[in-house]
Amino acid sequence: MDLRASLDGISPAQLGGFFGGWPNPPTPATLYRLLAGAPYLALAVEDGEVIGFVYAISDGVLCAYIPLLEVRPAWRGRGVASALMRSLLEGLDGLYMVDTACDEDLVPFYERFGLRRGAAMVRRDYARQAGRPESG
Ligand SMILES: CC(C)(COP(=O)(O)OP(=O)(O)OC[C@H]1O[C@@H](n2cnc3c(N)ncnc32)[C@H](O)[C@@H]1OP(=O)(O)O)[C@@H](O)C(=O)NCCC(=O)NCCS
Fold it and tell me: Which residue spans traverse the membrane (predicted)?
């Protein structure tokens, strides 16, 4: 497995197989767009396919937020997400706040990386689960 910190050499066709269980998932092309807009990311690549990703959005000064972390089902349970988190957090070193929101069962996973439990407020517009259309 190859860990990468950029989309260089990656195309949308290599980004399939994610968002399992989402009723209205983003397409691989949309996943490419959102990763392209993220200042920090980590990709796990195996045989030319992206098998896991995580990214952060950030103001580059104080704060970063990790919206999504996912490993393709066939690759779970082998430490891929842990490797992705370590790689991403290296890039976020020096920032004051690094936040994410997660389900209760993943609290122990994130605690391993120095994050601690806090309250999150969230809003979801399910009509936009596949992403906001490109403007223009
Ligand atoms: C959560 C997820 C990214 C973990 O990926 P992974 O590559 O299997 O994780 P790792 O192999 O690095 O696992 C690290 C540890 O976390 C634990 N863990 C992983 N997923 C877990 C889950 N859903 N619930 C509880 N513990 C979990 C593993 O048991 C493992 O513990 P161990 O080292 O004692 O065996 C993956 O299951 C996934 O993509 N799930 C769907 C998307 C999702 O829920 N993303 C998180 C958004 S907050």
Answer: none
Listed by start position, the domains of the chain span: 2-128
Superfamily of structural domain 2-128: Gcn5-related N-acetyltransferase (GNAT) (3.40.630.30)
pTM: 0.96
86 lines ligand 1 (CB under 6 A): no
CA distance 53 to 32: 11
Tens digit of each residue's pLDDT (9 = 90 or more) over 39-94: 999 999 999 999 999 999 999 999 999 999 999 999 999 999 999 999 999 999 99
Total count of residues recorded for the chain: 136
Ligand 1 and 70: CB distance under 6 A: yes
Measured in degrees and rounded to the nearest 5, phi and psi for residue 35 equal: -70, -35
